[in-house]
Amino acid sequence: MSEQREMKEASPGYRTVTIFVAGIAVIALVALVTVGVLQNKPLPQKYKYGIVMDAGSSHTALYIYQWPAEKDNNTGRVTQTDSCRVDGPGISSYASNPRGAGESLGDCMLKARQAVPSSRHGETPLYLGATAGMRLLNIENASASDAVFQAVEAALHSSPFSFRGARILSGQEEGAFGWVTVNYLDDRLTQGQETTGALDLGGASTQISFVSARFDGTESPHNLMTFRLYGNDYNLYTHSYLCYGKDQALRKMLALQTASGPTSLSDPCFHPGYIRTRDYSELYASPCVARSKPQASPRNFTLKGTGDFDSCRTAVKKIFDFSKCNFSRCSFNGVFQPELQGSFGAFSAYYFVLDFLNLTDTSAPMETIKDKLREYCATPWADMQRQHPSTKVKYLAEYCFSGTYILTLLTEGYNFTADTFKEITIIRKIKGSDAGWTLGYMLNLTNMIPAEAPDAPPAAPRRLRVHHGAHGPAAGGPSPLHHLHPQQDSVLQPAQDRMS
Ligand SMILES: *[C@@H]1O[C@H](CO)[C@@H](O)[C@H](O)[C@H]1NC(C)=O
Ligand SMILES: *[C@@H]1O[C@H](CO)[C@@H](O)[C@H](O)[C@H]1NC(C)=O
Ligand SMILES: *[C@@H]1O[C@H](CO)[C@@H](O)[C@H](O)[C@H]1NC(C)=O
Ligand SMILES: *[C@@H]1O[C@H](CO)[C@@H](O)[C@H](O)[C@H]1NC(C)=O
Ligand SMILES: *[C@@H]1O[C@H](CO)[C@@H](O)[C@H](O)[C@H]1NC(C)=O
Ligand SMILES: *[C@@H]1O[C@H](CO)[C@@H](O)[C@H](O)[C@H]1NC(C)=O
Ligand SMILES: *[C@@H]1O[C@H](CO)[C@@H](O)[C@H](O)[C@H]1NC(C)=O
């Protein structure tokens, strides 16, 4: 470097050239700024943006992503710059007031308008994806779910962004895009490194996705998603269990406990001293449990907590059916699952529940985790409320159940053992971006992950190519611009996915 510099300085014309170039640069800069100021236009923005709304069963969240504008064909790194949690419940709760669903998004849309430079608004894609809450509403009352979508679409169409449609994601898409997100953020795709499995837990469904050397889709084709990313092929195993998100799982457990229609219930999954009146018709107002509603029951029952972790585990275990399996091996409910392989990232409610319980350290011995949960569940309700005055009572009441459910799902359901449990990392964010399906979804719809490695000849279209197994849509699948109609939903959804 210094040698080169000496050579240049030794050459006679160098100084003149330098001054000349610097002068031109200054003039150009002044001209650029002047034009910008005169025309009252901001200088070119460094970044492009994309927005995805995650319409979950319990709430809606908005994520804003950015990537360098100057990179060719949007190959620059995508990161999350902002997020916003919509106040109030998920859009599926607005079945009797669809307009409310659209209105609920207003505050977050305003925040997005402020976060994205206005010169970029018109070109910024905006997507809304709904998951299991809307899958359930669609099963329960398709016209109500259509009305909710219409209201949401009207609200998003009136935003300054380039609205590209609202639709229900299939369970496979939700699982697969979560897996893409985690591995993209971890930089495991460009290098063709070993990938991380993804464990996602929501309110109404839960997903497990991982690459297994022993799984090529022959045994259970609808659990297969194949990807070609940066020149590497992946056979991804993925399954979404509808009704096994933490809120619907709680309903299922309560439904089994109240099958005979009692007036009171002693429940080990709630703290001692916890007491609450529950309405039968409210508890059973979900397709996950509707069919098991007792023929004759009073209007209410009294739920009394006893705070016993071990009995709670026994009660939780009953919502899993281990009795039948038509494959070489199953997780539960007759669903095929290959042997677990590699490391896993667990996010969404896995994170929020285990973080609250201070149990995110999966390297701790399983017995220690159980002991802590046992102690937690046994803590009297009055003490809980005293210790956590700012936590919403509904959430505070359900952490004992949720923690026990997570442990049971992972160990009994998915077959994580004391050893393989250590392969799970509980994550919220990776390098500042939330783990979840939204980023993977946007990367696919904006063609931001090439099928081929950057230097390879473009043998395949520059797109994240996703093929389903026998039951999936052919290459391309349904138009991403429209949400699914009920009859199409049955094409995308494997039978086990629909109901328990
Ligand atoms: C960008 O995409 C276009 C067409 O999609 C292609 O012709 C061009 O080679 C790509 N550029 C780079 C740098 O990959
Ligand atoms: C479905 O929802 C609509 C409101 O959007 C309501 O009018 C109708 O009664 C519901 N149907 C059933 C069967 O619940
Ligand atoms: C059921 O609970 C509601 C309020 O939670 C109460 O008004 C009603 O009297 C209760 N009904 C019975 C039969 O206990
Ligand atoms: C297993 O196969 C039998 C016979 O083909 C069928 O009746 C049953 O529903 C299947 N069970 C599951 C869990 O898929
Ligand atoms: C988790 O740890 C924090 C800090 O040590 C403590 O304040 C909080 O009460 C703990 N939460 C639970 C549920 O034990
Ligand atoms: C559960 O995991 C153990 C140990 O990893 C393995 O030996 C066993 O085959 C697995 N069982 C099923 C049903 O996958
Ligand atoms: C990925 O995006 C394309 C459109 O670019 C779409 O046709 C395809 O269905 C998407 N894949 C999935 C699994 O949604």
From TrEMBL:
Binding site for ATP: G203, A204, S205, T206, Q207
Enzyme class: hydrolase
Transmembrane keyword on record: yes
Location relative to the cell: Membrane, Caveola; Membrane
Cited Pfam families: GDA1_CD39
Cofactor requirements of the protein: Ca(2+); Mg(2+)
Segments traversing the membrane: 12-38
Keywords of this entry: ATP-binding, Calcium, Disulfide bond, Glycoprotein, Hydrolase, Magnesium, Membrane, Nucleotide-binding, Transmembrane, Transmembrane helix
The EC number(s) this enzyme carries: 3.6.1.5
Presence of the UniProt keyword ATP-binding in the record: yes
Any one of the GO CC terms: caveola
Stated family: Belongs to the GDA1/CD39 NTPase family.
Record's function text: Catalyzes the hydrolysis of both di- and triphosphate nucleotides (NDPs and NTPs) and hydrolyze NTPs to nucleotide monophosphates (NMPs) in two distinct successive phosphate-releasing steps, with NDPs as intermediates and participates in the regulation of extracellular levels of nucleotides. By hydrolyzing proinflammatory ATP and platelet-activating ADP to AMP, it blocks platelet aggregation and supports blood flow.
Protein name (record): Ectonucleoside triphosphate diphosphohydrolase 1
Originating organism: Gadus morhua
